[in-house]
Amino acid sequence: MATLGELERSVMDVLWDSTDALTAGDIRDDLAHGNAEGVGKELAVTTVLTVLSRLEAKNFVTRERDSRPHLFSASTSRAAHMAELMHEVLGAAPDREAVLARFVGQVSPREADALRRILAGK
Amino acid sequence: MATLGELERSVMDVLWDSTDALTAGDIRDDLAHGNAEGVGKELAVTTVLTVLSRLEAKNFVTRERDSRPHLFSASTSRAAHMAELMHEVLGAAPDREAVLARFVGQVSPREADALRRILAGK
DNA sequence: ATCAACTTCTACATAGTGTAGAAAGGAGTT
DNA sequence: AACTCCTTTCTACACTATGTAGAAGTTGAT
Q1: Positive or negative, the Cα torsion across A92, A94, A104, B83?
Q2: CB contact at 8 A, B93 and B101
Q3: Per-residue flag: A70 CB under 7 A of strand C
Q4: What is the ipTM of this complex?
């Protein structure tokens, strides 16, 4: 629904890549020397917390207030989020089938197969 | 690639809905009592021109400078644009097939059929 | 009661977008 | 050539989202 900025997106990536909930400090560290790209400048923890609050407000993140350093986790899976984004795009088009045709037309053969399989599975 | 604002998007919609190129004045009128929703407050032509310039800079719009009132047209079809957006979303995901699965999972039966047809057509 | 860690508040810079007036350009008319 | 009208470009400002973080407030532990 809402669009994510670059940092917000990075934070979400960290959360999506993690199996368990993380603290703001964890996330800051992951962002710094994280596996992802970007030199990863050291951010202040408050910066990360601000972003997390905003993400919480946007319902992208869930916060466990009981834990002392609050624990954060993504409220939706990345796949679900991405799929929703795609549906949003599609929903904004009057000519949905045309869009789908274009879309599928540019999909790799490998992915086309994946699509067939998925569709076969009803 | 670049994100479009609300007005930019409306202008693109006008252009996409038109078969031939339009002048800024045409577009302003279409926006006002256009077929689309929104009360359509009368905008200044300069406003429309500003937006058109920005859209041109973003390569969403082509301008014919020869015609006296310049003529504008969408440089890409709506379907192509939407499909590209979807690919952008998909491209940002590491687990593309998972996203596709989710996406297809939420597609209407009618559209699922459309997809099968499209995929069958190779 | 105090301290240290943590969270929330407040704040500011930047960029993108909506919006349009002021200034400038060009083509026809006198 | 000068004038005028229509059109375009320039300049400008407000508002929002986002990145960024210090200051202030809160709370558990000692």
Answers
A1: negative
A2: no
A3: yes
A4: 0.88
